[in-house]
Design goal:
Layout: H1 2-13, E1 26-30, E2 35-36, E3 40-46, E4 53-61, E5 69-75, E6 79-83, E7 88-98, E8 104-114, E9 125-128, E10 134-139, E11 147-153, E12 160-162, E13 166-167, E14 174-179, E15 186-194, E16 200-203, E17 207-210, E18 222-224, E19 237-242, E20 256-259, E21 264-267, E22 273-277, E23 282-287, E24 298-303, E25 308-313, H2 314-323, E26 333-339, E27 345-356, E28 363-374, E29 380-385, H3 386-389, E30 401-403, E31 417-420, E32 424-429, E33 435-439, E34 444-448, E35 459-463, E36 470-471, E37 484-488, E38 493-498, H4 501-504, E39 516-523, E40 528-536, E41 546-549, E42 555-563, E43 568-575, E44 581-587, E45 591-597
Parallel strand pairs: 2-8, 28-31, 36-40
Antiparallel strand pairs: 1-3, 3-6, 4-5, 4-7, 7-8, 9-10, 10-14, 11-12, 11-13, 11-15, 15-16, 15-17, 18-44, 19-20, 19-45, 20-21, 22-23, 23-24, 24-25, 26-27, 27-28, 28-29, 30-31, 32-33, 33-34, 34-35, 37-38, 38-39, 39-40, 41-42, 42-43, 43-44
Signal peptide: 1-24
GO molecular function, one term: aryl sulfotransferase activity
Organism: Allochromatium palmeri
């Protein structure tokens, strides 16, 4: 009965849907309200000054006091797609900004998202989606304050999976994207209502769902040892962000996930630079601007079907920087995005300057990096500019120079070539509330005083050759160079993928020239550093790479750029704390990053790092 009452309210509010308010802007939805959950709605926004306009689309509940959250920020495109799977009445607000006059026009309407199944359906339903490996599971309403999740398994596998839980709402069926399933396989699904302490208080009857045929082709996985059965590991999925495909073998360059046997369980069939998994079945991606084609200028969080949850652009961020009084502008968004424990978002951007008699005689273009921290509406909260905190007279350690269109170089605009001075490639939160930045072309890992948004950005230390730490034991060859994916794995230990470019591209390279996986133990009081884990990874990876500590205490390393662009290869390696290989997977594609996940809804625990306990250096939560 409560469901019927709530559904009647939805329909009553639907009578307001065509009302535009405030100013001269117009907002047209196609198809019009109401629509079932999972339908993609195209909103067209129009207003005066369209030739110079930026468009914003914000959406939130029409039944509560909270303001709508930004979905699209600073778009040059006035035709924007929006998809929701959660039923409700939504307040949709469109803003048109005339960039010449600064004037804004606003249009607003309400949009009703109905359940994907008929009213009063008493049982759960699993529906196909646009992705043959993703199902839409619809469960009957459950009473608050309980929560619900979906559990699913392929009978006989010996392994089941769960989605993220959702809060129960009176009279509203809950909708879940279910992903992590192999193609052409029958799965059994059921939902669980959770009480205090995540105890299961209700378990539904199971239903069957059979996946379709994947529309992409990925690399065959050559696995050592050959026995690939699930072995009880808490991270049985492999999340892969590819760089390019392999045209020779007909392999597609799409973000995807596999199980430990190399079998495809999820993918997005649109080319995009996937940076990291995020919470609750989402991920961060970086894309080219759809109108200008300039690469790495759009930052988006998308769901498991690739649908935009929130998105911003370089131009919108640069308008904010100007309003805040910063002289520099950013050229792109690149390499890394982090969800911070305070709910804000941090990412790396390129800042180009023309400097005279700084990096050699005369005037040259030089590329540095900026960290931006924004809130959930992409409003800038904190800025760190490498130009203000690092020495620009210290050249890139291998004298890297970018030419227009060169692979691996960010966009630049002030000259025909540019010195690639910093080339930061990873960003991570620290146990004490600061940030570390892997600065590839300085061969340093730099700790920046962020102090959860209250810091002044000063460099607290530089770890690496010619940095601030004295090396304890070992020899100078132990130092890393051109690193990737540095992060804390305990209060005083850092894990890093050491590409070893200094050792491997020197005129007289080390005889054991291989990229390495390393753990460094540092004493920030005594300013000493000791290499406590050092694993040769078999080959030299000139660029990219990732590193992860697993819950078992093992390490997972991605040597993502082996071979050549014509014959690309990557190697994924799991090694124990003793350095012994546990598992190795060879692939015929280049991989930017690879991570082991519990499921497609959870991030590795160390990515949240608000606190560590004393047990094996692992976080005190999963």
């Amino acid at each position: 009965m409560r469901y019927a009452i709530r559904f009647t309210i939805f329909m009553a509010l639907g009578g307001l849907l065509d009302l535009s308010v405030a100013g001269a802007a117009t907002l047209i939805a196609d198809p019009p309200s109401p629509q079932p959950a999972g339908t993609t709605i195209t909103f067209t926004i129009d207003g005066d000054g369209a030739a110079n306009a930026l468009y914003r689309l914000s959406v939130g509940s029409a039944l509560g006091p909270d303001q709508p959250e930004v979905v699209y920020d600073g778009s040059r495109d006035n035709v924007l797609e929006w998809t929701r799977i959660d039923p409700g009445v939504y307040r949709v607000v469109a803003t048109v900004l005339n960039t010449e006059t600064g004037e804004e026009q606003v249009a607003e309407q309400r949009f009703n998202i109905e359940p994907a199944v008929p009213p009063l359906t008493p049982w759960a339903v699993a529906l196909p989606t646009s992705n043959p490996l993703v199902a839409l599971y619809v469960a009957p309403p459950c009473p608050p304050p309980a929560r619900m999740r979906v559990r699913f398994e392929a009978p006989g596998d010996g392994q089941d999976w769960t989605t993220s839980p959702k809060r129960c709402e009176p009279g509203v069926p809950l909708h879940f994207q279910v992903a992590g399933m192999r193609e052409q396989t029958r799965y059994r699904m059921w939902h669980e209502i959770l009480g205090p302490g995540e105890a299961v208080i209700v378990r539904s009857d199971p239903l069957d769902f059979t996946t379709g045929t994947a529309l992409i082709t990925i690399s065959e996985a050559r696995i050592t040892p050959a026995d690939t059965a699930w072995d009880g590991t808490p991270e049985p999925l492999i999340w892969n962000s590819t760089l390019i495909g392999n045209p020779t073998l007909g392999l597609d360059p799409y973000i995807h996930a596999t199980d430990l046997a190399g079998r495809l369980v999820w993918y997005l069939d649109t080319p995009t630079w996937a940076v990291r998994p995020s919470h609750g079945g989402t991920l961060w991606v970086i894309r080219p601007d759809p109108l200008s084609g300039i690469r790495d200028t759009v930052l988006a969080k998308v769901d498991l079907l690739g649908q935009v949850i929130k998105q911003t652009r370089v131009e919108a961020l640069n308008r904010q920087l100007a309003q805040l009084g910063y002289a520099d502008r950013i050229n792109d968004i690149h390499h890394d995005v982090r969800d911070l424990p305070n709910g804000q978002i941090a990412f790396i951007s390129t800042v180009e300057r023309l400097v005279t008699d700084v990096q050699g005689p005369g005037t040259v273009s030089v590329l540095g990096d900026m960290i931006l921290v924004v809130d959930q509406n992409f409003v800038i909260q904190w800025v760190w500019n490498g130009w203000d905190h690092l020495d620009p007279t210290r050249l890139a350690t291998l004298d890297e120079v970018c030419l227009i269109g060169m692979a691996g170089c960010p966009p630049f605009h002030l000259a025909e070539q540019s010195n690639d001075w910093m080339h930061a490639n990873s960003l991570a939160y620290t146990p004490d509330g600061n940030l570390i930045l892997s600065v590839r072309h300085q061969d340093w890992i730099v700790k920046v005083q962020y102090a959860d948004g209250a810091g002044d950005g000063r460099v607290l230390w530089r770890l690496g050759p010619e940095g601030d730490f004295a090396l304890i034991g070992g020899e100078s060859d132990d130092w890393f160079s051109h690193t990737h994916d540095a992060s804390f794995i305990s209060e005083n230990r850092l894990l890093v993928y050491d590409n070893s470019n200094q050792r491997c591209t020197a005129e007289t390279p080390s005889p054991d020239c291989q990229s390495r996986g390393q753990v460094w133990e540092i004493d920030e009081q005594a300013m000493t550093a000791e290499l406590v884990f050092n694993r040769d990874l078999g080959e030299f990876a000139f660029a990219v790479g990732s590193a992860q500590r697993l819950l078992s205490g093992d390490y997972w390393f991605n040597s993502g750029m082996l071979g050549s662009f014509a014959a690309p290869r990557a190697t994924l390696l799991e090694a124990g704390p003793d350095g012994v290989m546990r598992r190795q997977i060879e692939l015929d594609m280049l991989h930017y990053r690879s991570y082991r996940l519990r499921d497609l809804y959870s991030v590795p625990p160390a990515w949240d790092v608000p606190a560590w306990n004393s047990h094996a250096g692992e976080p005190s939560f999963w």
